[in-house]
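#onboarding

Welcome to the new folks! Below is a worked example of what a typical request in this channel looks like: someone posts a single protein sequence, and someone else replies with the predicted structure as tokens. Don't worry about understanding the tokens yet, we'll cover that in week two.

Example request:
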Amino acid sequence: MTDLTTVLPGFPTQQYVRLLPSLEKHCVTTADLLTQDWIEIAKRAQLPLLDVKRLCNAVLDALQLDLGIGAVEDGDRTQESHNSRLRKSGRDLVDSWNTISTLDDDLDRALGGGIPAGYITEVTGESGAGKTQFLLTLLLSAQLPQPLGLSSPTLYISTESALPITRLSQLLRTHPTLASLEPKPSLDAVISIATPDLESQDHILRYQVPVAIRRHGIRLIILDSVAANYRAEFERPSAGGGHTNGANMAQRSADLVKLGQLLRDIAREHNIVVVVANQVADRFSSAGSSTADGSSPVLYRNPTQSSPLARRSAGTTVLPSSAPTSSASHPPPSTPHTPFAPTPDPMSLDHQQRWFTGWGDDLHASRNLKTPSLGLIWTTQIACRIALIKKPVYGPGLAADEENEAGELVLRRWRRWMKVVFAPHAKASGPRLRDAVEFEIRGDGVRAVEKVEKVGEGGDDGDGDGDGDVDSLPV
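Example response:
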């Protein structure tokens, strides 16, 4: 019965301490107590029938109370469960809807009003995409009165670097909204905790965070980042020099499920905002879908023509034609080829992850595909995923240096977009960057840039994403 305190943390186990060892010995779980006949359980564990019946009824009553679908007598008063989320009406849920603003109208509009309370929101992206800047803005805006914030202190849990106090001070001085409203946010209302490993992280989230919520009235918790400790703990090479074994990955999956359940319980019970930052990794193709450059896009081929050079370049992805052909009878097509799935099974994870990771949902994408860390197991634990995407912009160098000649293309700047991958309260952005909001990081905070019609012909604006119909200017 080791799972009883996990399923029902408040269950009074001391009243049934005589029964639990025998149930544990015979591998009786909490699910068995709820679903199986109590007579069969008593025979299986060799325990008195009435005692097992009493335990089964107590577990059922505790579960109903926890879910809010019953009433329990407590002395002279009755604790009704009408405050539970399962018993709230649609109007009650609307009235209790709270969000934290990003302090930018375009970003808030894409997010359906901001970051919602009661849910786990993930912000993922490459290094330098703007995740930390996005989170620092939330730390300060949460202290503002509604509708911008929740008028409450915030908690920042760091698994990597320390909280950047210098940048927070700069935002307080230069951001027009933060500097003009009263009362002004304060660094004193930002609580920072460092957690260098999984053991301390679990202890902080399970014991210290509930105490801090009750003591300080915290309404925003940021975990930056959720993947760092799991990567350090479970992605080490094995003793024999090999890769991570299956047992480690199974344990990691179980721990991720527990973490997701813990964060959801905190968010729902206290109606607070939980935001986690996540890292990304390069996505590699499967054995049967790799291309010459190692990418894993949707591939293209001419179904009636295949040359030895093409077969050598593309490996197994270009199939030989069924009949001999000639270049004269089959000239190169001028229209795009028909795409086919990158894996034999279109329902496989390698194919489906294009539409819940934030990268690769463009059928013509071929390079620089990313995937959020911790895989599908963690994806099922969150309610909202926000992907921050960056792309380089190259231009001719103005002068020669040690590495480049004059006029050679060099990196001039980065363009960044915020993309809603999925969310229960906001419309997901379309394929590629169709409905994504471009933003820039400035001294006074994160600001969206205004889209204007681009003058000229051609279907590309120079950033390689094929969305050449618009360009952008700072707001």
